[in-house]
Design goal:
Layout lengths: L1 E8 L6 H15 L2 E9 L7 H11 L7 E5 L9 H13 L3 E4 L7 H16 L1 H12 L11 E3 L5 E3 L1 H15 L5 H10 L12 H9 L7 E3 L2 E3 L9 H19 L12 E3 L6 E11 L5 E11 H6 L6 E3 H13 L6 E3 L6 H34 L5 H30 L4 H17 L6 H11 E6 L4 E5 L2
Parallel strand pairs: 1-2, 1-3, 3-4, 9-14, 13-15
Antiparallel strand pairs: 5-6, 7-8, 10-11, 11-12, 14-15
Helix pairs in contact: 3-4, 3-13, 4-12, 7-8, 12-13, 14-15
């Protein structure tokens, strides 16, 4: 077993040198091979270059499953609990073990205990108790669900026009046997709109079908009040809908997600909406009795998939990705149109900085999601195993976004001149030509993101728009 040390000079009683010596003693006592040590100091600011070097080191090691990352304490991972939780799960997502010098154990349980204590302080017992009292009385807290409005006594009252739509959704799904996508399509075709006068999607329909409020039960802050308001759906119908939803989820659980290189870049040429990657597996029996299994990967218009508003426009994933690659590498790529360059360097820099802000916004939302998972576990609604699974999933996505942000910030710094931008594009094209097949799928996706603004896709042609 290889051990990697990571320590942070927090200004406490132990210096970095003392923490490093303790790490070497720990390795000697437990029979670990000390592979490397990474250090950060308070004066380094928010960049935590030592931690980033640790992540890069671990990613380059194929034997991560036989590596343990040793820290002096949880405070080594972050200046606050949110940062600590993020970095703990990021390390776990890389397949390594995390261990504290203090007691030689995984700090995951201690992290949850600290989070629970902090959560109690943050919410405030008086505020939480007051909100729970309101919930017990069935008083509405927040936005009412579709189909209801808030009455004079803060109770839910039926909103007739929307209630009719709710009952219609349940009838289409349960009695007419339509799938969620087809239900959304029917609602849009018939001119029905959501709470905010928007189009229906698979997500909004699914949320309606899962909402227990339509049974007449109000749930908030862990309090469930049956018969607090008029029901829209019978318990039998609601139960059968949940059974059907659960069976569909179990069917999809075995499917493995795969990376699509043009995700977020490909757009339907007919409706202008994004095209999303779809995987389908097909099994059939041959004449000789043997079975054949094939997987098909393709891009499909999101409007068709989510709202059934566009025609059935699809392109095989491998063929489309190769077509884009050839267009980029062609000597006279007629299909490639450079996006008109901004009139001055300030406009180009502004766009690059906007991309950084978008990435930071996505990271912030992922932080909030991890915080919600931690809160659920602190309240006892998530098991430790489930928290670990969800935390690792969020952390893996964060690591990918952080890498993109580091690259985006680097690109911002390179917008000083048109020549530098051209050199960056030429380097990316050279990597596309010489190294694409050797790069991991995520690295290929990042590389294409550096070059492409968008790819407009028709059934028999494409138009590739380059970044300025």
């Amino acid at each position: 077993m290889r051990a990697v040390g990571y320590f942070w000079d927090t200004g406490g009683s132990e210096s970095l040198a003392e923490q490093s010596r303790a790490f070497l003693d720990f390795c000697h006592q437990n029979g670990y091979e000390a592979a490397a040590t990474f250090l950060d100091v308070t004066a380094a600011g928010d960049d935590r270059s030592g931690y980033r070097q640790l992540i890069d080191f671990l990613k380059q090691r194929p034997e991560r499953g036989f590596t343990v990352v040793v820290i002096s304490s949880l405070t080594s991972l972050g200046s606050d609990l949110r940062e600590t939780a993020r970095r703990y799960f990021q390390l776990v997502s890389l397949g390594v073990q995390v261990m504290c010098l203090e007691d030689g154990t995984d700090p995951g349980s201690a992290l949850l205990s600290l989070w629970t204590e902090k959560k109690d302080e943050r919410l405030g017992q008086k505020v939480q108790a007051a909100m729970r009292r309101k919930a017990v009385m069935g008083e509405v807290l927040g936005r009412p669900p579709f189909g209801y409005r808030v009455g004079p006594r803060r109770r839910l009252e039926i909103l007739p026009e929307e209630a009719t739509v709710v009952r219609y959704i349940f009838r289409l799904y349960l009695r007419d046997g339509l799938g969620i996508r087809l239900v959304a399509r029917r609602l849009n075709e018939e001119g029905m709109r959501t709470h905010r006068n928007g189009l229906w999607s698979m997500v909004t329909v699914r949320d309606i079908l899962r909402n227990r409020t339509y049974l007449g039960t109000y749930s908030r802050f862990g309090v469930r009040v049956p018969a607090s308001h008029p029901a829209l759906i019978s318990s039998d119908d609601f139960r059968r809908v949940q059974e059907r939803l659960s069976s569909r989820r179990q069917e999809r659980a075995e499917r493995q997600t795969s990376l699509f290189l043009l995700s977020g870049l490909a757009y339907c040429g007919y409706c202008g909406n994004k095209m999303i990657g779809v995987s389908r597996r097909q099994r059939w029996r041959r004449r000789d009795g043997s079975q054949k299994l094939a997987e098909y990967r393709y891009y499909q218009c999101e409007s068709r998939t989510n709202r059934s508003l566009c025609e059935y426009h699809t392109r095989r994933a491998g063929q489309l990705e190769e077509e884009v690659r050839q267009a980029l590498l062609g000597e006279e790529p007629a299909a490639v149109l450079a996006v008109p360059k901004a009139g001055d360097e300030a406009a180009v820099l502004q766009e690059a900085e906007a991309r950084c802000r978008r990435l930071r916004g996505r990271l912030h939302r992922l932080d909030k999601r991890l915080e919600e998972h931690m809160d659920e576990a602190a309240r006892g609604r998530l098991s430790a195993e489930r928290l670990r699974t969800l935390g690792v999933a969020v952390a893996a996505e964060e690591l990918s976004l952080e890498e993109n942000l580091v690259e985006a910030e680097r690109l911002v710094r390179q917008q000083a001149s048109a020549s530098e931008r051209q050199q960056q594009k030429e380097r990316a094209l050279a990597r596309l030509r010489d190294e694409l097949d050797r790069l991991a799928p995520l690295e290929q996706q990042v590389l294409l993101g550096e070059l492409l603004e968008q790819v407009v896709v028709w059934d028999d042609s494409i138009r590739v728009l380059l970044r300025p």
